[in-house]
Amino acid sequence: MKYKIPFSGRAHSFTKEEQDTVIEVMQKANPLTQGVYQESFQKKFCNFMDVDYAFALNNATSALELCAQLCQFNLGDEVIIPSHTYTASAYPFLKKGAKIIWSDIDLETRVVTAKTIESCITSKTKAIVVVHLYGYCADMPKIMQLAKRHNLLVIEDSAQAIGAKIKGKMAGTFGDFGVFSFHSHKNITTLGEGGMLIVKDEKIASIVPLLRHHGHCDFSYDRKNYWLPAMGNLDFPELYGNKLWPNNFCLGEVECALGEKLLERVELINADKRKRALQFIDELKEFTELEFHRVDSTRHNYHLLVARFIDKKRDTFIEKMSKKGVQCVVQYYPLNRYDFYRKAGYGDAKCPSADNFYDNMVSFPFSHIMDNQTFEDMIDITKTVLSELA
Ligand SMILES: *Cc1c(COP(=O)(O)O)cnc(C)c1O
What we know:
Blueprint: H1 16-28, H2 36-49, E1 54-57, H3 60-71, E2 78-82, H4 91-95, E3 99-103, H5 114-118, E4 125-131, H6 140-150, E5 153-157, E6 165-166, E7 169-170, E8 177-181, E9 195-199, H7 202-212, H8 237-240, H9 253-262, H10 266-283, E10 290-292, E11 305-309, H11 314-323, H12 339-343, H13 352-360, E12 361-364, H14 372-389
The protein binds pyridoxal-5'-phosphate.
């Protein structure tokens, strides 16, 4: 079926300057990977986030895999992960040998809290993955206090939350690691794929370039007998006892150059999305059977626009919307209910709010380049369908 308002329509447009950057760097960059544009993208990202170390990567899943690798899980070590998130928040940790404990979410904000995490902590817990889902920054100050008390590593999956802040500090800059995505579906994209990893610790930051690129990194001196091939210089027994295998997770120069440019308007994009989300929520205020999370501040970047039905009419609603050309969807299958995780032994979870949210949630088409008329049409159709259902 062809939808008038598809869920995943064209989600981005690029300015003339951004298009020119791509063409220019495509012809000018040498090499086309790991060069000056990677360096300046990382520097600009650090400035934007107010952090010391950030590394451009081919996507956020690779960033999460690096985090999992750097956690160095031993047999039986546990990591706490929300059951309500995208699958990429979780499986990199399974690959690296951790045991997952599913954390519930707060039904109103749809993210984890210090309280939902605390009930999952055991003597085996080594790390926590906090996901700022839908673009809403979880209560990081409280979560960091809890993590300190229990000596836990904190990974912030900020794939959806670039630019979201709490108390003036960016999502992704509180924990030991902060992960960002520039996938096509996110608020900004480096041509389909892309990611960034923020690392807090200086020593760990010094080995990420090697882990990112086959165990190699630049030599800071002129090598004697330069014609001999450089041997991998990933050798940090004092840190990890030589237990780290490298990867190739690099992002190309053209993508880096575009990413750097897009950082100039990410806050504008976020502000536009927030304004629209608030308009949508306010216009539907009378329909109290639909529960939105209304946040009139930069704590939410409204990457996605979601709501929860309190009267079990979700599926009928989506069907009726679909008949009128609007393609709403349901998102984030609770991971413990996913066959993949169940078969791996992770089918058990005490996450009633995550289950409730998933079973009653709806996600609206919400690209920031949707034109105003289409957006108004979506509001009108939503009102009509809700009135029919009442
Ligand atoms: C998109 C997303 C990812 C994965 O990002 P990629 O860049 O596509 O690898 C991870 N976690 C969350 C919450 C996401 O939304």
